[in-house]
Amino acid sequence: MDGLRASAGLLRRGRLRRRRQPQSHSGSVLVLPLRPRKIRRQLRRSAASRMAALRAQTLPSEDSEDSRVESTVDGSLYQAGCSLRLLCPQAFSTTVWQFLAVLQEQFGSMAGSNVYLTPPNSQGFAPHYDDIEAFVLQLEGRKLWRVYRPRVPTEELALTSSPNFSQEDLGEPVLQTVLEPGDLLYFPRGFIHQAECQDGVHSLHLTLSTYQRNTWGDFLEAVLPLAVQAAMEENVEFRRGLPRDFMDYMGAQHSDSKDPRRTAFMEKVRVLVARLGHFAPVDAVADQRAKDFIHDSLPPVLTDRERALSVYGLPIRWEAGEPVNVGAQLTTETEVHMLQDGIARLLGEGGHLFLYYTVENSRVYHLEEPKCLEILPQQADAMELLLRSYPEFVRVGDLPCDSVEDQLSLATMLYDKGLLLTKMPLT
Hints:
Blueprint: H1 2-11, E1 29-32, H2 47-57, H3 67-70, H4 75-79, E2 83-87, H5 94-107, E3 111-118, E4 133-141, E5 143-148, E6 175-179, E7 184-187, E8 192-196, E9 203-210, H6 216-234, H7 260-275, H8 282-296, H9 304-308, E10 316-319, E11 322-325, E12 335-338, E13 344-349, E14 352-357, E15 371-375, H10 380-389, E16 394-395, H11 404-416, E17 420-422
Parallel strand pairs: 1-2
Antiparallel strand pairs: 2-3, 3-9, 4-7, 4-9, 5-6, 5-8, 10-11, 12-16, 12-17, 13-14, 14-15
């Protein structure tokens, strides 16, 4: 608990950059702004019926200046060779949601997706590379893919997406293949790719992306400014004045100088940089990234067992227009563990403890604000035990709290919020 509070104090000294939602590369693609709560569509429809559904059900976004153009989508644009991009298909398809949930868990990073419908004998995008790890799953039709290695070392594991390339910019592809329904293609960040439909056949594919802005460099970019601030506060060496004459021997115009003062200056910089590791708030930055990941995450996909043994499978009845649980009550003998691993994170912020969780997230990226519960100081050890002990069950009466009341109130709060699973059904 002390560590959580210390981390919170360190984070208040600086601001961490938020990761952005993975964005697809621009090109001759029409983006369809969809309202997931008003539209329900199955990915297995034929291409023709999907086009009709898009014409009938696509709604403009009130906040988008492009919505006036996007809302005019009809068959003539498709016939003219325009590809269609369906954003956030996991909002409509449980299968895609489950697929993304697996990627999210395995990579420990946000996973996103788009669906692309490309008409026959056309190409949606010019050659380019992206800043995400990409998985392409062919759903319908066929598509010819060409993938090229990064052209230069600086493009390897790219941090940003590229502009469009011409064919003259490219060498020979490292991979050229036609994807058929059910085929899966993977290419890393920085690998240039292009795809086209041929022989009068359309294509419908799902692109899944992950690992955006999730590098050592991104982590250190957050750590180092905070480390410098902490070092200046705690170590007088970082507060000493620079040599009055350092401009006489430092800088590009002096880079070839053999002045011993320059050598001493460079050595001093190396020593101070090496010392920064002692002040680096690594745990605090890791916690902040974990909090961001919790907000980025999809809500958990529940198994039948998880649903039956949690609040989601609890029988209820209606009384006076309100749902009321039927005969369900935790006791000190009830054995529990977290609903799933990784669905919650305990953080210290402003002298308080908060448990951030994913169970109320939307299947649309950041549609909801981050959700959290405040954990009382006397319940912190019990909360940490529940987070660490998964998938082992813990008896409520064995939670390290000062009183039975604290044990039951913590367990009941977590259970009611959908964060706990019981060993036996509550009936």
